């Protein structure tokens, strides 16, 4: 131990508190690539605060104010005032003053600066040239041990919770063990143009160049496969170009999982096409009265819209002004729970709001009127809801009335007879299995953004048919359907048991359960295939674990208690906070499509997190030790 170890630590004398606070707040707004997107964990610590606390704890105080100030400046940077524009509730844009840091190693994106290497060397000097040992006995989400690893320390992370232990393995052990290791992308990935395009874009190619290169490589890969030759025997392709790191191998096998799951699930998430001109974009009415056509699927479950356009020649399709069938993949299905009115027995949708999209430039609302026989309601879509009111307060009041649903704090009002059913009536209906659900609208991905339409009879039938497939889907899943009991309604924040959703499987719709079971099966198949594809044992374990992280993220975005966020036109997620409140109207993602809540979005977020973690891995720090045990053992 060096002499300096007997002196005070820097944190005992000085600390850049304001800079740390500012950069921690800024980090909270970072979504893409943050380790928090790897897996849900409550009470995550900011990386900036963890980094600052560790550096200030590991370094001794120099005893010299000038040197101390220099270290603090390297650590937290300097403060500068800036002016930001903020939109106020009344719609007015105001300029507000705010503090920002300049320099330092705390702000998101600056953790790879040359100053960090300086701190790494200074810490080793303070410990006589060796890596200091850092123990976190309650490691949780891994922010503190990750930053200790970044600083070159010998890390031991302990947590008694097996979920935390799994997160720590993925955050610390696997990335550090496999850092800097590259290998050729698997053969199936080299034939996937969409995957290769993203891969080449990440390596600095412009979008058009990346797509061109991807098509070239995919074409040559297919040719090499047919001719039984090695891809790298062909001209213009080098082995180094297609050697990828851990993050891209995770993405490659994520695509493999998606292809396997899509074969079983495509029929449950049909894609429809509309007859449209491309430029200028717009729907074209047909004399046949057939505004939508179901897009046929190939053997892999992929929509083949070109089959619908087979009657048009190439010259016709080359002109964007000529209308043709355009596939519009499903983004989400919007549902409302239903109950039978205790007075007139009509089927009543339980809607908190009828707004579907509510932006400055886009206002879409669900219309509703009683059926002629008063057995329920008929829905419609108003895609251009007008604004009324002379000031902001009047506009808010008008919008509130325009989008008013059937639910209120007192209960639900029947739109057919006006009878009010109290919340206690709804709880009783839920506990006696008398709550139903109906699709109110379908959100699709159009040429000019998200579009809304009513569900077809086929979509309604497909959703209903999933109930009969749940048992079969879970027959291949270890332990079967998750029938474990939820915490009771007396548990803080757990409201769903009051309405009969008292087991884990009940917070998912039947179609969601089938989809999740199919992805579990595909991930299990992936692990078996990985072990016979040339990967070593450590790589197989790591890749399988990261695929599981993608699935765990998908669980959060696929339940029947997700709200539809009208301000951004996207599904929410289950654990907005760590509670399970009741949602009467909910959104269901199409997990096989490239949408929020889909498998690829969730898996790609895991890939971005891995890339961030790999930047923290280094050749100085040993592989962290991750233990699943009590802190006192």
Layout of helices and strands, plus pairs?
Layout: H1 10-13, H2 17-28, H3 47-58, H4 65-76, E1 78-87, E2 93-102, H5 114-126, E3 133-136, H6 143-150, E4 154-158, H7 162-178, E5 183-184, H8 193-202, H9 207-227, E6 243-244, H10 246-265, E7 272-277, E8 282-283, E9 292-294, H11 314-318, E10 324-328, E11 330-340, E12 347-350, E13 355-358, E14 363-370, E15 377-382, H12 392-402, E16 407-408, E17 411-413, E18 420-422, H13 423-431, E19 436-446, E20 449-453, H14 457-465, H15 470-474, H16 510-530, H17 537-556, E21 564-565, E22 570-571, E23 585-589, H18 599-616, E24 625-627
Parallel strand pairs: 3-4, 4-24
Antiparallel strand pairs: 1-2, 5-6, 7-8, 7-9, 7-10, 11-12, 11-19, 11-23, 13-14, 14-15, 16-17, 17-18, 19-20, 21-22
Helix pairs in contact: 2-3, 3-6, 7-17, 7-18, 8-9, 10-16, 10-17, 10-18, 16-17, 17-18
